[in-house]
Amino acid sequence: MSYAELATLAGDRPTLYVDFSGDLDLRDRVHQHFAGQLVYSCFAGSAQSTDEAKLTAIEGPQPVFFFAPIQIRKRNAEWGPEGGSQHIGEGLRRFFQQVTEGEQPSLEVIESRGYEAAQSVICRLFHGQVPPVEGHVIRL
Question: What superkingdom heads the lineage (predicted)?
Answer without folding.
Answer: Bacteria
